[in-house]
Amino acid sequence: MSEETKKCVYIHTSGVEAPYRAASPFFLATTAALMDYDVSMVFTIKATGLLKKGVAETLQVKEGGEGANLQFFIDQARDAGVKFYVCAPSLDLNDVTVEDLIEIDGVVGGTAVNEMLLEADLVVSF
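and the corresponding structure tokens:
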């Protein structure tokens, strides 16, 4: 890797309706952060609902209630330094306010998201 820090952006669109899709973006973002990448996750469409206080603790990623809940993956990402951003229009779509969410690093609009994507070395969408 070069001297310049590489940037990764993970766009997460799936929410509580598809818990089997919830953990992978956090897992990959965590891995990239541990590889010394500057990593951001952008939550949009239904994914914003995953960040609602109390949801992650109850959401089982694996059907049948086995294995880690989503909070485990969120905690790992946070501990690794992954930044969480919420797309502004998705707040209304999910009937939530910023106060309803766990700690995030910011609310972003379309311009900010596009700038993040243009500056990134890697963009992954789920």
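(Above: one complete record from the training split.) The longest helix spans residues 23-34.
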